[in-house]
Every structure is written in structure tokens, then in C-alpha cells.
Design a protein that fits this description.
mainly beta, Immunoglobulin-like, Rossmann fold, nine-stranded mixed β-sheet, five-stranded antiparallel β-sheet, 5 helices, elongated
Length: 471
């Protein structure tokens, strides 16, 4: 066949419109979605190149794509509210010839200010020792990729703000000293408590605090400051913490008074208190937002005295939050009421001196008001119940644990209401030691305030807390 080869024709490129005209507040957001296409009279389009260079020249940096649309976040220079961007796109045909007259689209863009909110945690305490956790989330109408950082202040937004990277969505704020009411606090970002902390000022101890936060975008536009809920941050006054875990106000007040009075009488005059399960409107008021934060709070202290009428709540929380406390050499006393509904197959007791609870089908164990609780170790006084305790849970011990008290119990066949002398295991208090051979955990399945029938609680406290635990 004879003929002349025709010259390849360049492709043509189009955008959905040729121009976008907007002024003032009607300008586009910095996040834009653009569409384009091309045609080639003597071949096919294999791709496109685009650029936001304001002037096309030989040195223009083109970006290749095979797509027909894309979403762009246009970076407005810091300090500017509006910019007119120029978008060029050119088609490339199958012979690598590009459109010599790229499609051009003017984009009148305005920057939109970002925003940020505090995100509620699992718990949001209104009273806390100085280890505080907050969560937040920032957004930007121009696209969240346009966010650059957060700025935070304790209590006063006129102070120089503290900066955190935009990748940080939560922070733990921990006072560096308790010798002043206005300490610096260490800031740990995103739960990373092993990282080198950054120091921040503005926290106030023994006072009500609020954390303020604002978001900053890449054009330096700032959101308004928003505030956290108010929280009273307590300054620890001692190395000993009383964890009061009662779920009713009357029992709570009675137990706290009993422990406070007898500790003082035994020579332990200085201690802090934490009402761990106190609630208002169904919300915990002093429990940390997460286990990691609660663990850090417990680690502020060398000794913890924990008493509760709810074994499931107390033992579950303790199992999840006391590892760091024990690893730092902490010593724990825990006395809890174990109800008949306690799940004996749970792992809540795994960190205690208890191997398993003593339980038999259709049998309840009773401590009468005339029965004694006998010491199994030298120096511990004989005890007696103040009243009849109708549900006692003795236990067997893990290897290495030592029994401290056994109870003279009465068995009761529930189905026939028949009482009989109990001859099985009856240990109700025991201890275990740490790797150095020191007693670091004493556990009781009977509440101490119910064992003062002989009015010798102060003697018991002096033996347990001063001689055994070294307070």
C-alpha cells in the first residue's frame, strides 16, 4: 500500500469548568476535588500530568497520574487567609506527546480555621492525685491533613502555650514534685510513659484546674481554645494511701473512720485517702480514666491499705493496676468482703496470696459473735467478731504464702438449714513476700472493722502495719 504517514496529533485536555469565580466568604475551602479528561484524535490517552505552579515553563514540576479526578489539600502560606491557586493539567497520548496547551483552572481558596474537642474517657474524675489523663480530637474543614499541631495551657490561656504534634491524641500530665503547689508537670504523649517527657507549667495542686487546648493548621490558623472539665488536683502528703472501696456512703464513712483512728493510734499519723468507687449520678468521681493512669497514681505511694465491701471490683482493679506499684517495692494490705456471688473461676485473685477460695455446694460458712479468730503467727492478737458474719470465705494458699489467721467457723447446710461444726480449711488472712523476703502483701477475706469484738484493733494495726509492713 502506498501513502504518506500522517503526523501524530497532540491530545486535548479539559476540566469540568474553565474558571471558578468566588469572592469573599464564598471562596472555596482548601480541600478541593477536581475532575479532568482528555481526547486524542489519532490514538488514546495513557495518562495526565498536573501542576499547581502559577506559571508553566520548561522548569515546571509536573505530576503524573492515570486518574481522571483527585482531591487536593492546598497549602495556604502561614499568615494568609486567601490564595488564588492555578491548576494546570495536560493529557499525554500513546506516543508520549503531551497537550501543548494544558487546561487551566483558577481556584480562589480561603483557609478555614480548625477545631478541637476533648473526648470523654472511660472515667472522668473530678478529684485526682497529680497524674491526669485527657483525650482530644482535632478536625479541619480543609481536611485533617491540614492540621499541624495543638497548643495547651493549664488554667490561663494568656500564658505561653505548650505545643504537641498533631499525631498526639491524648496526654498524661504528671507533677514532677510535691514540694510546691505550682509544680512543673511531665507530659507523656499517646500513653508512651517510657518516652522522655516534656515539661509544662501551670498545674496547681490542692486547687481546681482546667486544661485548655486549641488546634493550629498549616497556614497558622488557630481554633478557639476549648476547656476540659474541672478537676481538683490533690497534693499527696504522705507515702501511704488508704484506698476506701465501699459502695455505700454509710459503710464508707464507718470503715474510713475505723482505719484512720486505729492507724493514728498505732503511730501511723500521716496518710492520704482515695474513695475509689465513689459515684455521682452514676459516674466515678475519683477513678482514673484508664488502668495505665490509675497504675501511675498508685505508684506515687510506697504502701497501700485497701478495704472494700466489693471483692470483685477491688480485686479486678488491683490486678490490672498494681504491677508497677509492686515492681517499685510497694507494700499492700487488702481486706475485702467476698460475697456469695463472687465468681470463683475468675482470675481476680491471681496476684494475691490466695490459691483458691474454699467452697462447697449447698454450704455457707458462718462466724458467730462468740467465735474467735486465732493467730497462726507470733505477735498477732486473738480476734473476735463484733457480730454474726453469715458469709465467710476462707481460702487455700499459693506456694510460699503464710497463714496469719484461721477462723472458728460454723457450717450451714442451706437447703435444710442445718448447722454443724466446720472442720475444713479456715484461713481468712495470709501474707506473701517479695523477692527480697520482705512481706509485701497481706490479704484478708474478712473486714477488719468487723473483728474488733475484743477492742484490740489498735494492737492488730500496730502488728500489721508497723511491724510487718514497716509503716
Amino acid at each position: 500500500m502506498n501513502g504518506n504517514l500522517k503526523e501524530n496529533l497532540a491530545p486535548e485536555t479539559h476540566t469540568i469548568v474553565d474558571a471558578i469565580v468566588r469572592i469573599g466568604a464564598d471562596r472555596m475551602n482548601a480541600q478541593v476535588h477536581l475532575t479532568w479528561w482528555g481526547n486524542d484524535a489519532d490514538g488514546f490517552i495513557k495518562g495526565y500530568e498536573f501542576t499547581f505552579d502559577s506559571v508553566v515553563s520548561a522548569s515546571t514540576n509536573w505530576n503524573f497520574t492515570t486518574k481522571l479526578d483527585s482531591t487536593f489539600i492546598l497549602s495556604i502560606p502561614p499568615g494568609k487567609d486567601t490564595v488564588d491557586f492555578i491548576f494546570y493539567v495536560r493529557a499525554i497520548d500513546n506516543l508520549n506527546v503531551f497537550d501543548p496547551t494544558p487546561a487551566r483552572l483558577g481556584l480562589p481558596v480561603k483557609n478555614s480555621a480548625p477545631s478541637v474537642i476533648f473526648v470523654p474517657g472511660l472515667n472522668n474524675p473530678i478529684v485526682s492525685f497529680p497524674v491526669i489523663k485527657f483525650y482530644w480530637k482535632g478536625t479541619d474543614p480543609d481536611g485533617d491533613d491540614n492540621l499541624m499541631r495543638y497548643e495547651l495551657c493549664w488554667n490561663d490561656t494568656n500564658e505561653l502555650p505548650f505545643s504537641l504534634d498533631v499525631t498526639v491524641s491524648n496526654g498524661t500530665f504528671m507533677a514532677t514534685t510535691f514540694t510546691t503547689n505550682n509544680p512543673l508537670c511531665s507530659v507523656y504523649a499517646n500513653n508512651d510513659l517510657n518516652a522522655q517527657p516534656i515539661l509544662m507549667n501551670g498545674m496547681m495542686l490542692n486547687d481546681t484546674n482546667q486544661l485548655f487546648i486549641r488546634a493550629i493548621d498549616k497556614s497558622a490558623a488557630k481554633s478557639k481554645y476549648v476547656s476540659s472539665y474541672k478537676i481538683f488536683i490533690r497534693k499527696p502528703i504522705s507515702a501511704t494511701l488508704l484506698v476506701e472501696g465501699y459502695t455505700t456512703p454509710v459503710q464508707s464513712a464507718t470503715a474510713l473512720a475505723f482505719y484512720s483512728q486505729n492507724l493514728s493510734a498505732a503511730g501511723v499519723a500521716s496518710f492520704d485517702t482515695l474513695n475509689i468507687f465513689q459515684q455521682q449520678a452514676g459516674v466515678y468521681t475519683q477513678l482514673a480514666p484508664d488502668n495505665l493512669t490509675q497504675s501511675r497514681i498508685f505508684s506515687l505511694f510506697n504502701a497501700i491499705i485497701w478495704f472494700s465491701n466489693d471483692a470483685s471490683k477491688s480485686l479486678s482493679l488491683g490486678q490490672r493496676t498494681l504491677d508497677d506499684f509492686f515492681n517499685a517495692g510497694g507494700k499492700l494490705f487488702e481486706a475485702v468482703y467476698i460475697s456469695s456471688s463472687f465468681d470463683e473461676q475468675s482470675t481476680f485473685l491471681d496476684f494475691t496470696p490466695v490459691q483458691s477460695l474454699v467452697a462447697y455446694s449447698d454450704t455457707a460458712l458462718i462466724l458467730t459473735d462468740t467465735s474467735s479468730v486465732f493467730a497462726q503467727q507470733t505477735g498477732f492478737p486473738t480476734l473476735k467478731s463484733n457480730s454474726i458474719i453469715s458469709n465467710v470465705k476462707p481460702f487455700s494458699l499459693v506456694a510460699g504464702a503464710v497463714p496469719i489467721y484461721n477462723a472458728n467457723l460454723t457450717g450451714k447446710k442451706i437447703s435444710i438449714n442445718f448447722l454443724f461444726p466446720w472442720t475444713g480449711s479456715s484461713t481468712i488472712m495470709a501474707s506473701k513476700t517479695n523477692q527480697s523476703g520482705q512481706v509485701n502483701f497481706i490479704f484478708s477475706s474478712l473486714e477488719l472493722q468487723k473483728l474488733d469484738g475484743l477492742s484490740n484493733a489498735t494492737q492488730l494495726f500496730q502488728k500489721i502495719f508497723v511491724q510487718e509492713l514497716g509503716l
